[in-house]
Structure formats: structure tokens, C-alpha cells
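Researcher: Final request for today, and then I'll write up notes for the group meeting. The sequence and the SMILES for pyridoxal-5'-phosphate follow.
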Amino acid sequence: VQPVYLDHAATTPLWPEAREAMLPYLGERFGNPSSSHRWGRDARSALEDARDRVARVLGAQRSEIIFTASGTESDNIAVLGAWRSCPRERAAVVCSAVEHKAALLATKAAHREGAPLVILGVDDEGRVDLSLLDEALASRPAVVTVMWGNNEVGTVQPVAEIGARCLAAGVPFHTDAVQAFGKVRVRVDETPCDLLALSAHKFGGPKGIGILYIREGTVLEALEHGGGQEHHLRPGTENVAGAVGLAVAAEKSVMALDAESARLAALRDSLEHSLREAVPGLVVNGGGARLPHISNVSIPGVDQDALLVSLDLEGIAVSVASACQSGATAPSHVLSAMGRVLPQGASIRVSLGRTTTAADIERAAQVIPHVVARTSITARTSLAASIAS
Ligand SMILES: Cc1ncc(COP(=O)(O)O)c(C=O)c1O
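Model: Predicted protein-pyridoxal-5'-phosphate complex:
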């Protein structure tokens, strides 16, 4: 049987058009965009064309887009750059309890450098408590970072409201839109955010390239020092092929957005419906506005490691919470913040993408309940008892 890849929130295949557009820049069009000769000018024009295209898709100006090496790097430049550029008397940093580790650990690094850290709690669906935000804003922090859509449970935050409150308080607002982009409408001309992070490999671009949108007038201190590329904020020779692939993938994703989001949400709903019917006690985590491609379910009484190994053997690729912590046995900080950690049981994230078909979902809906029954702790205990006797 064909294996089924349901881990698109970890990474998703390249758009074929992005790959095609990149190939010349991995071949004969190899120049360094900082060189003034024709090879350099050719690379520069490709890079600037990619920047223009990304800016258009996001509703930004081209001067507000910098290319980075990843979503992680974008989050770090935003959070640490904002904190380090801020006068010390207003230097708290604020983040939600459900941020990706990239933003969460950047705020913790600022904390180690002396920033008071405010972590905003969430409700049981993973949504930030706005009254806590209002309290935090009263001290005029250096930066607030709240992700657009969560990578583990898919919950969408009220970013427009958060941004409006930060704007009114005169506090820079960073949002990690790495999972949200291409799945919901993400535009900086419609959302009051000062900083926004994207990662190409989450929307069908190549790995190792990201975007940081920096609203004009936002001050950041550079974390790295070198040749001055990308407004000195991300020095180092630019990844031209990556930028070209990112731009094509961004355009394709936005063009496909409406139809694709509806398709993925319908597939996700049908999977959740089947799993709820077939697996006793199964709970879907997250709620309200959710990204269409992520489903996180908790299953009581199963062994997490055994479940994952068995699913993999059956050819179903899913993930335990964030892929960046795959293999970790500590409970997810996201589920903990939501009060959703089970004393005994497993939580898995199933994530869908462009190549996911209805047949993939049907197969997952058949296989997961069987594997759950096999890896249930009671089943294993009675098997062990019968072997022992
Ligand atoms: C919400 C979120 N932010 C940031 C990242 C990190 O992106 P990258 O893999 O490009 O470093 C991820 C990847 O898992 C993510 O899901």
C-alpha cells in the first residue's frame, strides 16, 4: 500500500513551478547579487523581483521585506532585535504561552539578557486572553509576539485585535504567520502588525529561506554583523534560488487559497468525524477559528511512542505535536497551556496539504483506530499478562 504523508505542517512538497523557477539559479545564473558585473546584476534583479512579488502578495512595500534563512531566524530577528533596540526602561517582552519555540525561546533569551518576561495564558482552545494582553501593554513593553495560527493545534489568534491594541499602546507587534500563510488570508495592509515571519517550506517553497516583514519605521537591532545585506539585518550572501522559489510558492499559495482552504477543512472535518466515531474518548484539541490543515487529537490510554511507531509501520506519517520536538517525550507546552495534557495517553497532529487526497484521509481514518486499539495500554497489559501466564 502507498504510504500516506500527513505531516504537512512539518514541511510540504515544493510547488513544481517553484522548483522550475529555481533551477537556473542553481545552474548558469549563479551570480552573487552584491557583484556589480553582469552575473551579479542578473542575480540582483532576480532577488529584487522576488522581493517585489512577495511584497505584492502580502500588501507590503518592497523595502519592508527582508529575506532570512528560516522562520526561526525571522522570529529571532524580530523579537531579540526589537528588545535590543529598545530603551531599557520599557523593556519587557510579551509572548503567548502557545508560541512556536522559535519565538518562545527568543523571548526567553531576551529574559536572560534582563527583560522582564510576560507569558500570556490561553483558554482551553488555545486562544490568548486579551485582558492579560491589556495588562501587559500597560507597562509599554519592547515587543509583543503572538503567532497568527498555531502549529500544533491550528488555533487562529485574534491578530487584528491584538495588533490594534498594540498599535494604540505604541508597542511593536510581531506575529509568526509561518503556519497561517497560504491557509488563511495574511495581509499586512489589512492587519496592524509591525513584524511578520514566514517560512517558504511550509507553503511549497524550498527549505532554508524565510521572510521577515518589517513595517516602515520599526526599529530593530541587528543580531548578526557582516556585509550589510538585507538592510544590515540579515547580512550574508542572499539565497537567490531560494528567494525565487519562495516568491513563486507564495503567489501560487495565495492564488489557490480559497479553494484549497475549503478543500482541506472539509477533509480535516471528515477525518475528525470518523475518528470520533471509531475511537472511544478521543478529543479534538483547539477550536473556534482554526487553520484548515491541522488536526490535533488526544487519545486516552494509549502509549504515545508505540502509537507513532505503529502508525509509521502502517505507512501513516503524522507527528507528535510540533515536528521540531518529534521524539521528545515531555508533554507539549501548547497542550499544557490549554490544560489538555492527558495523564495517560497520546496526542497526535495530523496535518494536510496540497497533495493530500480524499483517499489518503479514508485510509488514515481506517488505520488510526486499528493502531489505537493495538497500542492501548489496557490491550498491551492484557497481552503481556497472557504471555506471562
Ligand atoms: C509556527 C512556526 N513558527 C516557526 C517555525 C520555524 O520555521 P523554520 O522551519 O523555517 O525555521 C515553524 C516550523 O515548524 C512553525 O510551525
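Model: Residues 70-72, 100, 102, 147, 151, 176, 178-179, 199, 210, 322-324 surround pyridoxal-5'-phosphate (CB under 6 Å). The first strand starts at residue 4 and ends at 5.
Researcher: Thanks, that's everything.
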